[in-house]
């Protein structure tokens, strides 16, 4: 079962999500929070797999709540579910550690699919979030390369990861096994001092490491 916590300050939204998710045989809603403070407390008490997190909430917003959750419980994934699509919300949410970013007009079946894919370790971004990241890449394209702490092959894996590819797709692109990819990703997280794929991708964008090592 995928254990889900819903965090949203609108009762109607929480009820709607609860009603639909309860129909899924592999998903269990373990709790509801009406603000970021409650969300953090419930994550500590309930240890869900995934938090469906609203962005704008009283007392503590979704970005601050996500930062606190990822700092203390890095294995808990956060899927932002919001009405905001501007970069002032999208990029801070991703930088906070969100594994996914979806808008509230998402089709119910697509939301469930996003939850399942995040549970499998993927990062799921609405096209608007992806475009914001691409825009960030363009803005920082001319930044000078830094000396990377990664090996050439790790740089190649990181470059593929920033394109949103799964471990299987990375393995196919680089002609290695999925096990090898997992090992490289673990090393990347350790060396870059990041907690997940999203933060690693942001590091690559910020430091102009999105093209790989250039070594075949």
TrEMBL record:
Signal peptide region: none
Domain HTH luxR-type: 143-208
Alphabetically ordered keywords of this record: DNA-binding, Phosphoprotein, Transcription, Transcription regulation
SMART domains referenced in this protein's UniProt entry, alphabetically: HTH_LUXR, REC
Domain Response regulatory: 3-119
Modified residues (4-aspartylphosphate): 54
PANTHER family xrefs: TWO-COMPONENT RESPONSE REGULATOR (PTHR43214)
Protein name (record): DNA-binding response regulator
Lineage of producing organism: Bacteria, Bacillati, Bacillota, Bacilli, Bacillales
């Amino acid at each position: 079962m995928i254990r889900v916590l819903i965090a949203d300050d609108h009762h109607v939204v929480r009820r709607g999500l609860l009603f639909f998710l309860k129909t899924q045989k592999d998903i269990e809603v373990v709790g509801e929070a009406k603000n970021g403070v409650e969300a953090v407390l419930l994550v500590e008490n309930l240890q869900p797999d995934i938090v469906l997190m609203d962005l704008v909430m009283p007392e503590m917003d979704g970005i601050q709540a996500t930062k606190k959750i990822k700092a203390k419980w890095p294995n808990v994934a956060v899927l932002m579910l919001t009405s905001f699509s501007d970069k002032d919300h999208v990029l801070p949410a991703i930088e906070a550690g969100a594994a996914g970013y979806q808008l509230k007009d998402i089709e119910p079946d697509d939301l469930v699919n996003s939850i399942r894919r995040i549970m499998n370790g993927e990062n799921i971004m609405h096209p608007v979030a992806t475009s914001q990241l691409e825009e960030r890449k363009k803005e920082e394209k001319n930044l000078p390369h830094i000396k990377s702490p990664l090996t050439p092959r790790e740089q190649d894996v990181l470059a593929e990861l920033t394109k949103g590819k799964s471990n299987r797709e990375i393995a196919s692109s680089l002609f290695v096994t999925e096990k090898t990819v997992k090992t490289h990703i673990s090393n990347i997280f350790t060396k870059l001092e990041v907690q997940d794929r999203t933060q690693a991708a942001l590091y690559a964008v910020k430091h102009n490491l999105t093209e790989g090592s250039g070594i075949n």
